[in-house]
From TrEMBL:
Molecular function terms, GO-annotated: ATP binding
Nucleotide-binding in keyword set: yes
Record's keyword terms, sorted: ATP-binding, Nucleotide-binding
Family, similarity comment: Belongs to the KTI12 family.
The keyword ATP-binding is annotated on this UniProt entry: yes
InterPro entries: KTI12/PSTK, P-loop_NTPase
Species of origin: Hypsizygus marmoreus
Matches recorded under Gene3D superfamilies: P-loop containing nucleotide triphosphate hydrolases
Name of the protein in question: Protein kti12
Signal peptide start and end residues: none
Amino acid sequence: MALITISGFPCSGKTRRAEQIRSSLETYIHDESYQGPITKVVLLSDDTLNLKRSSYDDSRSEKPARGALFTAMQRQMASDTILIVDALNYIKGFRYQMYCAAREMKLRVCTVFVVATQGLCREWNSAREDGLAYAPETLENLLFRYEEPSSMVRWDSPLFTVLWTEDAPPMPQIWEALTKGVVKPPNSGTLAVTKPPTDALQALEQTTSSIVSAILADQTGIGGKLILSTSMSTPSSKPAITLPICTITLAELQRLKRQFVTVHKKAITLGTTEKGAVDWGEESITAKFVTYLEEHLRS
């Protein structure tokens, strides 16, 4: 149903804000006035996945840690769930990846930017006694590399900023974004392309050749509707074509056939097929080729 991305400096108070958001959302869900599809709130974090702070010491260990977080996030996404991802999420490319995954699942999204000064983050990190502190050099590296969210980009929007001086996040606005915000369609670049069958090229060539042969054999030159006796069609499904008042030559039909085959061959080999299911059967190819011929023989 929705994805909340928590982002901010390390030791800026993200976990506290995530817990506040989770508690408030559960209150909204269990309210008697709410009759929507959301039934649960899931909080996902480095701690729930047992990812150590040392994972961020270098890129070699950080990459699999981010991969584990992303995989767990995909597993938890559901139409009845609000998923809160409480992690550094400091790389805008990773936030974009999360955004695309949410779009594929048709989830609403929002980003909560937890703000604290770098001085406070250093102070809070050094004061931790729970064994979850960052190494000083790791903390400085993460502070330097942090890429701040922006409301100007779609993967960070809508963006809610929570300062360290504020008591709580703006829950009414967050709840409205999660329940009434626009559900954006999946990114076309992430959609799986329907692959044609392995014999699609052969079927394309044989079917169009059969149509050309039938037109040459059956045409009368007086135009009008003509039922074609193709070798590949059953008696109950013989194709019909409307021809102009003239005798159509083999050269003209071969030229149109080559053009039609070239266009569809490119669609087959490169995967640039039209949206939706594509039928590469004989009847479908016949109908497309007949329509193509009718349009171009009139011109």
